[in-house]
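Problem 12. The chain below contains 124 residues. Write out its predicted structure in token notation.
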Amino acid sequence: MSDYEKRLAKINEKLNKEKEKTRQLENQKRVLESREKEARRKLDTRQKIIAGGILLDVFPKYKRLQPQRNQTDNNKEFAPLAHFLLALAANNELVAQLEAEAQRIQTKVTDQPSADPPLEDLPQ
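Solution.
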């Protein structure tokens, strides 16, 4: 084997090692991204469970709504709740008034340490 061939073989060996390192780093990156995506998904699900629990505690008439077998049927079943919330969200003046009242209640509860806060049994 000539000197040229030996040097070329070493370069190819180094190149292969670097390709392997790159492959490993790309795999580590995918694993990290997957973990982050899963953590965000779990947080999103937990937020929805807590918010949904509060909504059903405050508006118990919507507890009659039951999950269905598919998204189309779920959309039909939960349409009354969705329409109620859409109508509420569309009324900016009412939303502002309700947020101000909620802030007043929160301040009142916070100022009275001996009082039990409403909705103390939030879903964990």
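Discussion. Residues 1-58 form one domain. Students who got a different answer should revisit the alignment rule from Section 12.3.
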